[in-house]
Structure to design on (315 residues):
């Protein structure tokens, strides 16, 4: 599965599996295996730079790429997995690469698979949040977690009792964490995918954890987010000159990830404005741009959201 929009992705899997199983009963064939559970895997952690490790998502929906940054005096983790069970898995992986007592936690955004595994972390972990994240949690609470819990009995089990961990420190635009021999610049990115999008840039390794703001997957634009903000975020990331870009989901890349994202958003923004000015409806604009863009970017349900946003924001 390439689409990662939360509700669409999981619902689509459920529908496909259900229909396939029904057809199999009629034809006597064997149905395919059910979707892979949203569990962070153990034993696959990779060292990707002198101070940085990644637990890759292995292409599993609702599993994030988890970052572990190890200094001489402290360790920082980026994202948690879905629920305390996944958080505990992350901590077992941390213990394999770090003996530091001091531990920090940053999440790229507050969606459940990125933030609600904090219950599996020790009580001594120091939670760093942007003010935007704090405000988003105050406004939305556990509404999305409740929806996630309805996806399956396993999702409900993983999220049982999950709560957002209170911030130990907050910041407006940027916060630097000194881990000893390596620093992490934690960046509040504004409203792109969510109101509290947060990135982490590891110096001197030049590894960027870009969240959902820059991925090889097409952008998932939050309702009400500005495409101008998406473009500004790509420029801000590019100015860091990262050698490696680790997104929230999907394969890692380099600075070309931002180039591709910016090219897609810019094209959608320009063409949607042209078609709207020509009198096309939003549905006509979606159909036209899908036909134009699919040869370059492939078929993806994620394409519709940015087109709708561009149409709505065009004069």
């Amino acid at each position: 599965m390439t689409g990662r929009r939360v509700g669409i992705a999981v619902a689509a899997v459920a529908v496909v599996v259900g229909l396939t199983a029904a057809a199999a009963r009629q034809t006597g064939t064997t149905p395919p295996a059910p979707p892979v559970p949203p569990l962070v895997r153990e034993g696959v952690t990779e060292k990707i730079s002198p101070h940085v490790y990644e637990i890759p998502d292995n292409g599993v929906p609702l599993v994030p790429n988890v970052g572990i940054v190890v200094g001489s005096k402290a360790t920082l983790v980026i994202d948690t997995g879905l629920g305390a069970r996944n958080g505990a898995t992350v901590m077992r992986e941390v213990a394999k690469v770090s003996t530091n007592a001091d531990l920090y936690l940053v999440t790229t955004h507050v969606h459940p698979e990125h933030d609600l595994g904090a219950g599996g972390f020790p009580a001594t972990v120091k939670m760093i949040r942007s003010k935007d994240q704090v405000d988003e949690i105050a406004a939305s609470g556990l509404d999305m977690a409740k929806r996630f819990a309805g996806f399956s009995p396993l999702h409900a089990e993983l999220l049982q009792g999950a709560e957002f961990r209170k911030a130990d420190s907050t910041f407006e635009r940027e916060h630097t964490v000194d881990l000893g021999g390596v620093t992490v610049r934690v960046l509040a990115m504004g409203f792109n995918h969510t109101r509290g999008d947060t990135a982490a840039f590891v110096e001197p390794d030049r590894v960027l954890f870009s969240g959902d703001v820059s991925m090889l997957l097409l952008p998932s634009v939050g309702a009400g987010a500005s495409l101008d903000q998406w473009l500004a975020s790509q420029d801000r990331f590019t100015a860091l000159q990262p050698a490696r870009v680790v997104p929230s989901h999907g394969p890692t890349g380099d600075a070309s990830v931002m180039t591709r994202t910016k090219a897609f958003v810019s094209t959608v923004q320009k063409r949607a404005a042209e078609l709207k000015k020509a009198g096309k409806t939003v549905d006509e604009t979606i159909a036209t741009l899908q036909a134009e863009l699919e040869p370059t970017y492939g078929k993806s349900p994620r394409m519709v959201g940015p087109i709708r946003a561009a149409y709505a924001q065009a004069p």
